[in-house]
From TrEMBL:
It comes from the Bacteria. Keywords: DNA-binding, Transcription, Transcription regulation. It comes from Actinomadura fulvescens. Residues 3-60 form the HTH lysR-type domain. SUPFAM superfamilies: Periplasmic binding protein-like II, Winged helix' DNA-binding domain. CDD domains: PBP2_LTTR_aromatics_like. The gene is oxyR. The lineage of its organism: Bacteria, Bacillati, Actinomycetota, Actinomycetes, Streptosporangiales. Pfam families: HTH_1, LysR_substrate. This is Hydrogen peroxide-inducible genes activator OxyR. Belongs to the LysR transcriptional regulatory family.
Length: 302
C-alpha cells in the first residue's frame, strides 16, 4: 500500500462533501493542503479520483469504485487500532489457567468468573494440574497462571513467582457412616486403625511424606492401601466406605452427603493456595488477572 491513511481520510471526506472548502473545514486543514493530499493520493494510485470543472467537483469512475473500499479500509484501520490498544490493556487475548483440585479452589474460580465477565473478549482456557508438577506447565509455556496447591512450605523454582492467596486446613475425609463422622474434631491418632488413600509418593513425594510424618508424630504408621493422584478419586473411595483420606477442606464438597469432613485436632498442617506465573511474563492479560487476585486477596499470608 503506497498511500497514507490521512490521504485516504481526506479523499473520503471530500467525496462526501464534493466541495474543497467544506471538506477542508471538516478536516481542520487549509484548502491548499487538502488539494496537495488529494494530488498525492492520485499520484500514488496512478489514477484520477476527482474531476473539477465549472459545475463543481465530482468523482471520476475510478473515484466512485475506490470510495467504498476506502471507507472499508478506514473502518478496518480503526478496528485494528482499537484492538491493539485493548490488547495492550489486557482486555482481549488469551489466558491459560492451570488449577489442581477445583473442588477446594472456590475463591480462585470465582475470581476467574468475575474476570471473564468483565473481559468477555479474553479467551479463558482452564486445565487441570497434577500434584508434584504444578510449575512444569508454566515453565513449558503451556499455561500462563496456575493455582498451586501445596501441603507444607511453598518453594517455587527461581523462574516462577508465587503469591500466596489463602490457606486451607487439612481435614479428615470420612464416609458418612463412619464411627467418627459426628465428631466436632478428631486427633490424628484416632485414625490409627484406618486404611488410607493418599497421594502417590512417586507423583508428589513432599505431600506423601508430610502425611506420613503427621501420622508418625501421632504415634502410628498409616496403613496405605491406595495411592491416587486426584483428590476426587480419593474421595470416591471414601464415599464408598472403603478408605479415609486427609485432604484440604473443600469450599464445596464434590460428593455432598456421602463424605464428611472433620477437623484435625493437635496439628497446624495446612494446604497453601498460591497464584504462580513465570517471573518474566509481561503479558497484559496476566497482569490484569494478577490485579484481580490482588483485589480478592488483598493481604497474602506470611
Amino acid at each position: 500500500m503506497k498511500f497514507e491513511l490521512r490521504h485516504l481520510r481526506a479523499f473520503v471526506v471530500l467525496a462526501e462533501e464534493l466541495h474543497f472548502g467544506r471538506a477542508a473545514e471538516r478536516l481542520r486543514i487549509a484548502q491548499p493542503a487538502l488539494s496537495q493530499q488529494i494530488q498525492r493520493l492520485e499520484a500514488d494510485l496512478g489514477v484520477i479520483l476527482l474531476v473539477r470543472d465549472r459545475r463543481g467537483t465530482a468523482l471520476s469512475p475510478a473515484g466512485q469504485a475506490f470510495l467504498p473500499e476506502a471507507i472499508r479500509t478506514l473502518e478496518q484501520a480503526a478496528i485494528a487500532e482499537t484492538t491493539a490498544w485493548r490488547a495492550h490493556k489486557g482486555e482481549c487475548g488469551r489466558l491459560r489457567v492451570g488449577c489442581y483440585a477445583p473442588s477446594s479452589a472456590g475463591p480462585f474460580l470465582e475470581t476467574l468468573a468475575g474476570f471473564q465477565l468483565r473481559s468477555p473478549e479474553v479467551e479463558l482456557m482452564l486445565q487441570g494440574l497434577r500434584p508434584g508438577s504444578q510449575t512444569a506447565p508454566l515453565l513449558e509455556d503451556r499455561i500462563d497462571i496456575a493455582l498451586m496447591t501445596v501441603l507444607g512450605e511453598v518453594r517455587p523454582p527461581g523462574e516462577v513467582t508465587a503469591r500466596p492467596l489463602w490457606r486451607d486446613p487439612l481435614v479428615a475425609a470420612l464416609p458418612k457412616g463412619h464411627r467418627l463422622a459426628a465428631s466436632s474434631q478428631i486427633a490424628p491418632e484416632d485414625l490409627a486403625q484406618e486404611s488410607f488413600a493418599v497421594m502417590p509418593r512417586g507423583r508428589c513425594g513432599e505431600w506423601f511424606e508430610e502425611i506420613i510424618a503427621l501420622c508418625r508424630r501421632a504415634g502410628f504408621s498409616p496403613r496405605i492401601t491406595h495411592q491416587l493422584s486426584e483428590i476426587s478419586d480419593q474421595l470416591g473411595l471414601v464415599a464408598a466406605g472403603l478408605r479415609v483420606a486427609l485432604v484440604p477442606r473443600p469450599s464445596r464438597s464434590p460428593l455432598p452427603g456421602e463424605v464428611v469432613y472433620v477437623p484435625l485436632a493437635g496439628t497446624r498442617l495446612e494446604v497453601s493456595r498460591c497464584a504462580a506465573w513465570r517471573s518474566d511474563d509481561s503479558s497484559p492479560v496476566v497482569a490484569r488477572i494478577r490485579e484481580a487476585l490482588e483485589v480478592t486477596f488483598p493481604v497474602a499470608f506470611s
